[in-house]
Write a structure and sequence with these properties.
The protein is mostly helical. The chain is built from 3 helices and no strands.
Length: 102
């Protein structure tokens, strides 16, 4: 999960600190490791958001499309489908055995 080298180093330092026999360093180690993982997650979210903004601007918006990350709870709202509609459904009139190769 840790993709940023500075945060990998920080996590490693926290782990090494936790190996010392002084009891208080265990808590410091836990805090350092938790912060480095949290910072890595935040950086990953920012990178994904920036990538989607750029992909939408350069590729999808000129084609009248929009890409976003959504969970299953908001998909019916985005697609304007009933809340109880299945996420994936077979299209009527299409035989699944006769679909063209992808």
């Amino acid at each position: 999960m840790l993709s940023s080298p500075p945060f990998q180093d920080l996590s490693l330092a926290g782990t090494v600190l936790g190996l010392t026999p002084i009891p208080a360093t265990g808590l410091v180690s836990l805090g350092v490791s938790a912060r480095s993982v949290g910072a890595s997650i935040a950086i990953a979210r920012v990178r994904i958001a920036r990538y989607l903004v750029r992909a939408n601007k350069d590729y999808f918006v000129p084609r009248s499309l929009h890409v976003c990350i959504a969970n299953k709870k908001v998909i019916p709202e985005i697609t304007k489908q009933p809340a109880k509609a299945p996420i994936l459904a077979i299209f009527e009139g299409v035989d699944p055995g006769n679909t063209p190769p992808v």
